[in-house]
Design a protein that fits this description.
With 423 residues, this protein is of the alpha/beta class. The protein has one domain (5-386): Glycosidases (TIM Barrel). Helices cover 25% and strands 20% of the residues. It has helices spanning 36-45, 58-63, 80-83, 86-96, 121-140, 174-186, 198-203, 210-213, 233-247, 275-290, and strands spanning 5-10, 22-25, 48-52, 70-75, 105-113, 148-154, 158-160, 168-169, 191-194, 221-222, 229-230, 255-260, 305-307, 343-348, 367-369, 388-393, 396-401, 407-409, 415-417. The strands form five sheets. An eight-stranded parallel beta barrel has the order 2-3-4-5-6-9-12-13, surrounded by four helices. Helix 4 (86-96) packs across helix 5 (121-140) and helix 5 (121-140) packs parallel to helix 6. The relative contact order is 0.17.
Length: 423
């Protein structure tokens, strides 16, 4: 993309964006992505006000200075051991967070990703000490009032998730989770969870309702304990997390969905991976977020969700779906329409200065117009290098994202084991 630019073009009356506030994951495992400066208008085009990184890329953080976009920066699993040393943690915070404030609005640091479900005791043993060291560094630098410290988990940390009201953490992980929850509570930090209903449908398309996972009209399920009705899997997963937190005494801890999405392309055995389904999943999700609707168990709590992901990433390992979760292609054109009105993304040759020209209409590339807002009648109403978590309820089978080991648990507590070929 060195010789191209992304221009923000307006055609006629600009209608309000569908999304009031949404987060987006900005991964960069690719060799053909636009420069961060050219990503800024795309983030604004989808109405995103929050961005989550998997590192603290200086080019990205500089590009988004003075934009008002909030950032969660990442500290990778490979750094956890080093970060247990307070001196190392303080040096990292100084060079990766403090130096960009206040121009770039960094609001949180995600220390590690899905650490507890890697089944690596040496790694999981470093997680909380690393989080504590990073927080201490923020305190020392007088940044703790504006930057929180947290970590993202897979839904595989749950022992049970149906009915949602019986959600509970895995017994073997409670010793690690409890002190982390105490830390989050004392530092007023959110609990992050990654959830991918796509895997449920991919593994059992005959048993899992596609409409249920895509937020389409369906009969749904009823939690027999609370009598609450669920018409989509993601909300059931979120409420199961809330129930698990409440069972350990952390009912008021805020929950954020740090990753969720749907691939627009997959291998032959990746049933459900298509532009049409990705459009429905993400389009319906964005519509729900814009309506500020909570879950059945937490109707008054705003949904804090980060969609995965900004771009298709061509260098990610694993099946084809891994490289096709993006809302945008690397050239800045949308992977599929998501219902925004009056905005076009144009790809063309860059100017001699290399800077974007938001008002320019003289680009050489094609203009891509995102589809107009759709109504409910038009179809809008956890990643796979890992294994899966299987549970059953009322004749349905659901599969959730797991770190490295596949565990299946039905609501009676019996264990099913398997990998991609779980039956």
């Amino acid at each position: 993309m060195e010789n191209s630019r992304l221009a923000f073009l307006f055609t006629g009356l600009i209608l309000p964006l569908l999304v009031a506030s949404v987060g987006i994951n900005y991964g960069q495992i690719a060799n053909n992505l636009p420069s961060p400066e050219h990503v800024v208008p795309l983030v604004k085009a989808i109405g995103a006000t929050r961005v989550k990184l998997y590192d603290a890329d200086p080019k990205v953080l500089k590009a988004f200075a003075n934009t008002g976009v909030e950032f969660i920066v990442g500290l990778g699993n490979e750094y956890l051991s080093k970060m247990t040393d307070p001196a190392n943690a303080q040096a990292w915070v100084k060079s990766n967070v403090q130096c960009y404030l206040p121009a770039t609005k960094i609001v949180s640091i995600a220390v590690g990703n899905e650490v507890l479900t890697f089944n690596d005791t040496s790694l999981s043993g470093c997680l909380l000490p690393a989080m504590q060291s990073v927080h201490t560094a923020l305190v020392n630098l007088k940044l703790d009032s504006q930057v929180t410290v947290t970590t993202a988990h897979s839904v595989a940390i749950l022992q049970s998730s149906y009915p949602p009201s019986t959600g509970a953490f895995r017994q073997d992980l409670k010793g690690c989770i409890a002190p982390i929850l105490d830390f989050l509570s004392k530092t007023c930090s959110p609990f992050l969870i990654n959830a991918y209903p796509f895997f449920a449908y991919k593994a059992n398309p005959k048993q899992v309702s596609l409409d249920f996972v895509l937020f389409q009209p369906n009969a749904g399920i009823v939690d027999p304990r609370t009598n609450l009705h669920y018409d989509n899997m993601l909300f059931a997963q979120i409420d199961a997390v809330y129930a698990a937190l409440a069972s350990l005494g952390y009912k008021k801890l805020p929950v954020q969905i740090s990753e969720t999405g749907w691939p627009s392309k997959g291998d032959e055995d990746e049933i459900g991976a298509s532009p049409e389904n990705a459009k429905k999943y993400n389009g319906n999700l964005l519509k729900l977020i814009s309506q500020k609707k909570g879950t059945p168990a937490r109707p008054n709590s705003d949904l804090n969700i980060f969609v995965f992901a900004m771009f298709n990433e061509n260098m990610k390992p694993g099946p084809t779906s891994e490289r096709n979760y993006g809302l945008f292609k690397p050239d800045g054109t949308p992977a599929y329409g998501l219902g925004f009105s009056g905005i076009a993304v144009s790809s063309g040759n860059s100017s001699s200065t290399g800077s974007p020209s938001p008002s320019s209409t003289g680009t050489n590339g094609p203009s891509i117009y995102l589809s107009p807002p759709a109504n409910s009648s038009s179809g809008y109403l956890a990643i796979s290098s890992s294994t899966y978590f299987l549970y059953t309820f009322t004749g349905k089978v659901c599969l959730e994202h797991v770190g490295n080991v596949g565990h299946g648990v039905n609501f009676s507590g019996s264990v099913l084991r398997g990998r991609d070929n779980i039956m």
